[in-house]
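User: quick one, sequence for these tokens?
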């Protein structure tokens, strides 16, 4: 299959909307990461997503709609806490898990009685949903296990020959996926930290249950290998002597014949002397924005090992820690 990369012109959005209606796959930009979209109401279309990604079929997809009103097509009832969160943060990097209507196929929800919903902030994504005239289910548009795509060329690298269309809307603004909250119970539960910091959600909901026990896979997707480049990733804890410890670890890898690179904040780069670094940005928002792209870059440059600097456990840092623990497979130094 030929994969066409299209600019999001009105005509191309119509072409892609028609493809979704026909049950085909279209990758599209959002403010978090690129999604691999299909008509959420067509069983066979959703199945194609799992095949293209090599994704386990028990890992449910996020359904993207263009408005709060459009949610009622797929959920039984929107709880009042969900309405408050939606009014404040949607469109934006927030996904809410609610009880689904029976019209939503099991292929979309991994057989669960709930469905995850979000309204993306990207105009291209919203236009695509409107052109398709249906909710669009979409996971991140990467091969299962690989870093999520934050630019059209990342999608092309993973999906070339497997899908007909990629809408190229440039680089994703946030760079890590949405925050997922389950609002089916009395107290909202954080299932996956993400682009919307937990502190902001707490301001609206007051109480938020945060399950820190990694052995409980509430978000089915979180139990699988994730965000991993070909290089072996190490993630540092965040503390005063972090840069010295990273230098020691780096030198240890070199002495065993390996080729490492450090992912560091711009301001820290000189602390690593002549060692190879990739400057990831000036602050933690930029760290999040560039993380997945720089993991892919490390592979392209032929590094066998990536050592990622630690980040403080607050704001977007909390979500970064989640991604880096997964990306490193828990190899923390
Ligand atoms: O920012 C994002 O959320 C991106 C863009 C494309 O919207 N999408 C994304 O999808 O990250 P994906 O499939 O890579 O991650 C979705 C996560 C998975 O961990 C999945 O298990 C969880 O959401 N999820 C989906 N439906 C769920 C449900 N009904 N209950 C619990 N978790 C659910
Ligand atoms: Mg993903």
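Assistant:
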């Amino acid at each position: 299959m030929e994969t066409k990369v299209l600019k999001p012109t009105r005509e191309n959005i119509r072409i892609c909307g028609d493809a979704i209606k026909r049950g085909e796959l279209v990758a599209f930009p959002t403010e978090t990461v690129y999604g691999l979209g299909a008509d959420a109401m067509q069983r066979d279309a959703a199945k194609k997503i799992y095949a293209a990604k090599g994704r386990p079929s028990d890992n449910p997809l996020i359904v993207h709609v263009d408005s709060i009103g459009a949610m009622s097509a797929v959920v039984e009832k929107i709880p009042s806490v969900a309405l408050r969160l939606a009014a404040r943060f949607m469109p934006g990097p927030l996904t809410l898990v609610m009880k689904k209507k029976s019209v939503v196929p099991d292929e979309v929800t991994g057989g669960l009685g709930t469905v995850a919903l979000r309204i993306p902030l990207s105009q291209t994504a919203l236009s695509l949903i409107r052109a398709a005239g249906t909710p669009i289910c979409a996971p991140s548009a990467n091969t299962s296990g690989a870093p999520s795509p934050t630019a059209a060329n990342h999608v092309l690298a993973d999906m070339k020959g497997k899908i007909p269309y990629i809408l190229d809307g440039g680089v994703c603004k946030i760079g890590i996926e949405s925050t997922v909250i389950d609002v089916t119970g009395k107290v909202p539960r954080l299932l996956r930290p993400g682009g919307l910091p937990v502190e902001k959600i707490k301001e609206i909901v007051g109480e938020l249950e945060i399950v820190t026990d990694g052995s409980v896979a509430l978000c089915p997707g979180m139990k699988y290998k994730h965000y991993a480049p070909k290089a072996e990733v190490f993630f540092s804890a965040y503390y005063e002597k972090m840069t010295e410890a990273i230098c020691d670890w780096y030198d240890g890898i070199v002495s065993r014949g390996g080729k490492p690179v450090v992912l560091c904040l711009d301001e820290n780069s000189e602390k690593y002397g002549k060692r190879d670094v990739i400057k990831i940005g000036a602050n933690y928002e930029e760290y999040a924005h560039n993380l997945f792209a720089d993991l892919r870059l490390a592979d392209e440059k032929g590094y066998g090992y990536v050592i990622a600097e630690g980040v403080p456990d607050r704001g977007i840092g909390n979500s970064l820690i989640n991604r880096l623990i997964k990306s490193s497979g828990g190899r923390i130094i």
